[in-house]
Inverse folding.
């Protein structure tokens, strides 16, 4: 699963919040409706007892109820509060003025003293709560009669109450949820700040503006940063050790070769076949050792190589080596042209290219370095162009001089392994090499690093 | 010409030293950096060949030590490490040229001669001063196009004087540049060589190529 950590956390928290709040709202709503219903029941209970207090039974099927009941709603039609009294056989004995035209459903099977509370729908489609009570009335003459008192109240007040409650409930919970999500958002930002910093620091390390990750991190992340730093250091010292070993190997192998050659030279002059084989061994070793010493473009934590610091010593070196020829070497280094990679790689590439240019030029060598936009990397790329005014490389030989792997016996005399090594190092680091003709007349070799996978 | 060779591999050292002797150099061949530094400081070395991969004091350290001791003779690096970083480092600490192993002896010789030549301010391997011409490659001398037959000692004296043309060269320096051993130096020998050189180069006493500066030495005087 990809995506950002904070998005994942926010989504998870929102889902949990929604479920939790949803359940809470449902439970609270149920509880409220239940207690509101109980309140209605209690209220109707009170009304029944009020009716009981006012009513005066006058016979087995007549009850006298005064006109001016304490509850005015009984008097006005359609008020939503209805009263009714039936006799034991279920015949209507009395009905309040408000209940004109409506008949309350009364369960006749009720026993004396039994309260019954239920919902019902009246003939005019009005939904009501109904409360009934069966009473037995003893007259002075010792006879008794049973009456069923019924009171009904419209759903309307109850529903309004529930609606009001729900409105308030949803309002509060929505507000609370928004506040919680916002607070969590801030909390997440704060909690994830170290992770964001690691991300930025790794980018800086990759770009070479920082040598390693800093150590000011929460305990949980210290393991990660420590191990990352260890990896960066190990990578750097590994390359250094590896190159040293290769250097020692070169020394150990080439000194005996030098002995063989000088001994042969002294003894009986140079045998051309032996000489060819010697050169072949030498070329293969140089090529393979140089190729093995290439960093392969892994350069965590390296500072960008400032060309203004590495190119002038190289030019001074070649000026010394080619002191008799002394070509004019012009360096054109753009201000922002830096090499984001291994210094050894760069010097190897530039050294080989400049050496060729010095060797084959007439009297002029031009080196230019420009920054190029990198495709998918935080670091800019670099284009290094080395050209001279010599005879140039014939197009049909371009492929041969860049050939990977070296067969000393197949290569034309005088062609060093330089360009093959250059190509190897550059392509290992994801760059590419182009050879063409310079406007000066000679060869022009352009090396481009960091333009994605173009090759 | 006195040449200091610092190379730890004995076979290579012996063979290269022999080749250099054959080419007319007085050779001090040593096997490590400390000894190389000692010879560089104690003897009037004209040119040095130093292997970079020395045990103990590295070739790189030896070169910087020599340069720090204000010894300015040309230095040719021998290296098996043909990475440019190593070459640049070597030349930046004070070496003048490099040869990568395995080398051709001729190439080493050519580079050494080129270094010596440039040091004397000569642009070519053939030194020409007035009627006198000295070819360092062929080791031949001619005056007005007429070949002059010199012994190898006489040649060495003339070459040393011409490389240091215009400068005063003491008898001791001349002795050390033509003899390897530290034997009893008889300055008369140098006087004899110089006398013979004068007669061979200038039989009619017209061009006077070598000046004597009493008590100080000799100077090659033709511009």
């Amino acid at each position: 699963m990809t995506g950002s950590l904070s998005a994942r956390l926010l989504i998870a928290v929102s889902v949990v919040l929604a479920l939790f709040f949803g359940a809470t709202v449902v439970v609270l709503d149920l509880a409220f409706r239940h207690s509101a219903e109980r309140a209605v029941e209690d209220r109707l209970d009170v009304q029944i007892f009020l009716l009981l207090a006012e009513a005066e039974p006058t016979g087995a099927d007549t009850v006298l109820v005064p006109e001016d009941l304490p509850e005015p709603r009984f008097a006005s039609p359609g008020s939503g509060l209805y009263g009714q009294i039936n006799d034991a056989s279920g015949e209507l004995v009395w009905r309040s003025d408000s209940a004109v035209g409506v008949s309350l459903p009364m369960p006749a099977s009720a026993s004396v003293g039994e309260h019954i509370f239920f919902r019902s729908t009246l003939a005019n489609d009005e939904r009501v709560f109904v409360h009934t009570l069966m009473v037995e009335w003893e007259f002075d003459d010792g006879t008794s009669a049973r009456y069923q008192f019924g009171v009904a109240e419209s759903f309307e007040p109850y529903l309004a109450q529930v609606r009001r409650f729900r409105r308030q409930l949803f309002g509060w919970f929505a507000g609370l949820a928004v506040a919680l999500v916002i607070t969590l958002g801030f909390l997440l930002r704060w909690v994830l700040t170290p992770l964001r910093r690691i991300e930025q620091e790794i980018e800086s390390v990759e770009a070479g503006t920082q040598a390693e990750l800093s150590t000011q991190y929460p305990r949980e992340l210290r393991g990660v940063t420590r191990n990352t730093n260890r990896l960066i250091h190990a990578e750097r010292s590994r390359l250094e050790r590896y190159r040293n070993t290769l250097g020692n190997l070169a020394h150990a192998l080439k000194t005996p070769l030098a002995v063989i050659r000088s001994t042969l030279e002294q003894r009986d002059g140079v045998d051309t076949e032996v000489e060819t084989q010697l050169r072949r061994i030498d070329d293969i070793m140089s090529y393979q050792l140089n190729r093995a010493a290439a960093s392969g473009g892994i350069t965590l934590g390296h500072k960008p190589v400032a060309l203004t610091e590495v190119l002038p010593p190289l030019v001074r070196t070649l000026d010394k080596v080619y002191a008799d020829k002394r070509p004019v070497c012009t360096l054109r280094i753009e201000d922002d042209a830096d090499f984001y990679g291994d210094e050894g790689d760069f010097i190897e590439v530039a050294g080989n290219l400049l050496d060729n240019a010095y060797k084959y030029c007439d009297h002029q060598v031009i080196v230019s370095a420009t920054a190029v936009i990198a495709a998918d990397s935080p670091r800019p790329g670099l284009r290094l162009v080395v050209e001279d005014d010599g005879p140039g490389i014939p197009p049909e030989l371009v492929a041969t001089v860049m050939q990977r792997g070296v067969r000393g016996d197949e290569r034309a005399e005088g062609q060093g392994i330089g360009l093959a090594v250059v190509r190897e190092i550059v392509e290992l680091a994801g760059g590419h090499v182009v050879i063409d003709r310079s406007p000066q007349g000679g060869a022009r070799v352009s090396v481009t690093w960091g333009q994605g996978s173009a090759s | 010409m006195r040449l200091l060779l610092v190379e730890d591999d004995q076979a290579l050292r012996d063979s290269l030293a022999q080749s250099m002797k054959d080419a007319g150099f007085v050779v001090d061949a040593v096997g490590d950096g400390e000894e190389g530094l000692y010879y560089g400081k104690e003897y009037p070395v004209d040119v040095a060949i130093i292997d970079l991969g020395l045990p103990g004091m590295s070739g790189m350290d030896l070169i910087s030590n020599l340069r720090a001791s204000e010894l300015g003779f040309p230095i040719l690096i021998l290296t098996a490490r043909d990475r440019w970083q190593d070459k640049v480092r070597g030349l930046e600490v004070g070496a003048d040229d490099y040869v990568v192993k395995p080398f051709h002896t001729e190439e080493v010789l050519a580079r050494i001669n080129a270094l010596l030549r440039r040091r004397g301010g000569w642009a070519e391997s053939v030194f020409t001063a007035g009627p006198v011409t000295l070819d360092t490659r062929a080791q031949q001398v001619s005056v007005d196009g007429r070949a002059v037959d010199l012994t190898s000692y006489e040649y060495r004296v003339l070459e040393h004087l011409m490389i240091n043309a215009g400068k005063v060269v003491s008898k001791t320096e001349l002795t050390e540049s033509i003899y390897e051993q530290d034997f009893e130096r008889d300055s008369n020998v140098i006087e004899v060589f110089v006398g013979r050189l004068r007669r061979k180069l200038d039989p009619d006493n017209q061009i006077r190529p070598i000046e004597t500066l009493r008590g100080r030495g000799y100077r090659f005087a033709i511009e």
About this structure: The interface with chain A takes residues 9, 11-12, 15-16, 18-19, 53, 78, 80-88, 91-92, 96-98, 100-105, 114, 118, 123 of chain B (CB under 8 Å).
